[in-house]
Structure formats: structure tokens, C-alpha cells
Amino acid sequence: MLTIRIPHFILLTIILFTTAVIGNFLALPHVAEAAGFMGHKKKKGCTKCHKQQYKSWKKMRHAKAMITLMPGKFAEEKIKAKLDPDKNYLKDKKCLKCHTTGLDKGGYSIGNKKKMKSFYAVGCEACHGKGKKYQKVKNKYEQDDFPRDEVIKAGMKYGQKEVCEKCHNDDSPFNAALDPKYAFDYKKKLKKGTHEHFLLKKHPPRKGSEWLYEK
Ligand code: HEC
Ligand code: HEC
Ligand code: HEC
Ligand code: HEC
Predict the structure, then answer these.
(1) 117-140 pLDDT, tens per residue?
(2) 137 and 71, same structural domain?
(3) pTM given for the model
């Protein structure tokens, strides 16, 4: 018995030792740099680099668009729109297509845990377009001053009227026919509906958007 136990013990020691060495190596700063931790190159989620916008967005209605679909929430309004106030609409694709980001188009997808977490409610990419392609363009530039026309070509959107109207339209149960207060007045909604806007270091506000940045 003993002769069998000793090799097991030695094997365990070797495994623990190797893990510790690899772990230490990964923690070294130069390894991090080699993996491209600078500039745009770490490109996991938008929030990593745009913390201010994220913090502000989180307080807005768009970030809470899933809570709205839960039973008991907005009960009076649901009744007025002939919806069932006690029903759980969280798995109803008819609602999810506007209350999540990119439903079944690479975004939110029922049953896919990772996507359900990343594309919950009306997130960044619902207004700014799919990041995959334009982040690649940003990554080509060492500095922050990537040319704007190139990211636009790669699909970056700036929250134009048409982008909003993909959801703010008459297919919504809460539309202007139900109550004029739901009519979509683009300019008015733009200021209070997206997130607070912060002047960027390298990219001045676009022409016509300056007013959004006035405090
Ligand atoms: C690795 C960091 C990083 C990530 C991740 C990132 N961005 Fe950016 N983004 C930047 C930088 C840097 C700028 C330019 C800042 C400046 O001009 O000072 C920028 C600029 C922007 C702009 C303004 C562009 C312009 O022309 O004015 C928008 C909009 C934007 N990002 C949206 C997003 C969205 C949406 C995502 C997620 C899909 C995202 N970003 C992910 C770093 C990042
Ligand atoms: C993916 C769909 C989607 C897109 C795109 C979208 N919205 Fe919304 N918006 C919603 C939903 C859903 C709500 C309701 C959120 C809730 O459940 O409370 C909402 C709520 C709002 C509200 C709060 C209610 C109100 O009318 O005062 C504002 C403001 C608003 N959106 C403005 C905009 C603007 C401006 C744009 C474009 C720049 C935009 N939205 C793009 C889906 C969307
Ligand atoms: C075509 C897109 C779209 C669809 C489909 C949609 N919604 Fe919405 N929903 C919106 C938008 C946009 C708003 C914000 C309206 C506003 O305040 O101007 C909204 C707001 C709401 C509100 C809040 C109303 C208020 O008075 O603030 C509730 C509740 C709601 N939706 C539930 C649902 C349910 C339940 C479904 C599915 C049966 C659904 N929605 C389907 C786009 C949509
Ligand atoms: C409802 C639409 C909407 C959503 C959701 C949204 N944005 Fe924006 N965002 C805008 C609009 C509109 C602008 C102004 C663009 C312009 O006119 O040039 C903007 C501008 C920006 C800018 C430029 C700097 C600034 O502060 O104005 C960055 C960076 C940005 N958004 C990042 C994000 C990130 C990160 C998220 C998610 C946490 C997000 N946005 C979610 C609509 C949206």
C-alpha cells in the first residue's frame, strides 16, 4: 500500500508546484503587456473602457427594460395596453426583441447564459452597433485617434434617429395611439434617454451633437 501512496503524493506535489510557477508567470507585468493590455487592445466589453457612460446608462430606463417585463411591474400601464399585469413576459420574444440587445442576432438568446448576461436590457450595442467589427478598426491604431469615418464604415452608430426607431415605433404596445405621451420626439428623448455625455480626449463632439455635451 505504502509504495502506491508515495508516488501519488509526489505527483500531487509536482502538480501543485507547476501550477504555482505558471500562475506566477502569468502575473508578471511583461506577460500582460505582450498580450496587448494597452490602448484598445483589451476589447472585452464596452464598459471596461467607458466606465462613466456605463455608470450613467445604468441609471436610465434602458438598463431597466427587463424589470419592466416582470409580473406586477407597470401594472396599470399594462392593463391600459391590454396586457396581463400578472404575466411574466421575460421569455416572450415579442417583447424581448425591443427590451434586450440584438435578440437572436448574435445578442440576447434565451437559454444561452453568457449572452443573456451580456445583452440583458437595452445595452450599448443596441445604439452603437455591433462592436466586433469597429473594435477591430480601433485596434489598428496605437493612439486613441482612430479616424471616425473608418469606425463608421465598420458599423459604429451614434444613436441616430433610425437607430432609436427600430424600437420606438408603433409595434410597441406603448405607442402614440395608446397615449400621445408615448410619441417619439427624437431630440427631447435623446438628451434624457441615453446616458450622460462626456467630452472625449481625442474625439470632439460630432457636428450637430455639441449641445448634448453642454452641462
Ligand atoms: C479597449 C478600450 C475600449 C473598448 C473596449 C471600447 N472602446 Fe469605445 N473608445 C475607446 C477609446 C480610447 C475611444 C476614443 C476616446 C477619445 O477620443 O479620447 C473610444 C470612442 C468611442 C466612441 C466615440 C467615437 C467617436 O467617433 O467619437 C463610442 C461611441 C464608443 N467608443 C463606443 C464603444 C462601444 C459601444 C463599445 C463596446 C462595443 C466600446 N466603445 C468599446 C476605447 C474603447
Ligand atoms: C433595442 C430597442 C431600443 C432602442 C434601439 C432604443 N430604445 Fe429607448 N427604450 C426602449 C425600451 C424597451 C424602453 C422602455 C424601458 C423600460 O422598460 O422602462 C425605452 C425607453 C426610452 C426612454 C425612457 C422613456 C421615455 O420615453 O421617456 C427614452 C427617453 C428613450 N428610450 C430614448 C431612446 C433614444 C433617444 C434612442 C436612440 C438614440 C433609443 N431610446 C433607442 C427600447 C429601445
Ligand atoms: C417595437 C418595440 C417594442 C415591443 C415589441 C415591446 N416594447 Fe415595451 N416598450 C418599448 C418602448 C420603446 C418603450 C418606451 C415607451 C415610452 O415610454 O415612450 C416601452 C415601454 C414598455 C413599458 C413601460 C410603459 C410605461 O408607461 O412606461 C412596459 C410595461 C412594456 N414596454 C412592456 C412590454 C411588453 C409586456 C411587451 C410584449 C408584450 C413589449 N413591451 C413589447 C418598445 C417595445
Ligand atoms: C439609447 C441609446 C444609447 C445607449 C443604450 C448607449 N449609448 Fe452611448 N451614445 C448615444 C448617443 C446618442 C451618443 C452621442 C453620439 C453623437 O451624437 O455623436 C452616445 C455617445 C457615446 C460615447 C461618446 C462620448 C459620450 O459620452 O458621449 C461613448 C464613449 C458611448 N456613447 C459609450 C456607450 C456605452 C459604453 C454604452 C453602454 C454602457 C452606451 N454608450 C449606451 C446613445 C446610446
Answers:
(1) 999 999 999 999 999 999 999 889
(2) yes
(3) 0.88
Query: Apex CA 115: angle with CA 68 and CA 151, to 5°?
Result: 100
Domain range for 18: 1-35
Report CA(139)–ligand 3 centroid distance (Å): 36
User: How many C-beta neighbours within 10 Å does residue 121 have?
Assistant: 21
Question: Can you tell me the distance from the alpha carbon of 27 to that of 58, in angstroms, rounded to the nearest whole number?
Answer: 32
Mapping DSSP to helix (H, G, I), strand (E, B) and coil, where does residue 73 land? coil
Handedness of CA 60, 65, 68, 70 (dihedral sign): negative
Burial of 7 (0-12, 13-18, 19+ CB in 10 A): exposed
Q: Is the CB of 40 under 6 A from ligand 1?
A: yes
The atom number, within ligand 1, closest to the CA of 200 reads: 18
Counting every residue written for the chain, the total comes to 215
> Are 103 and 145 in a shared domain?
yes
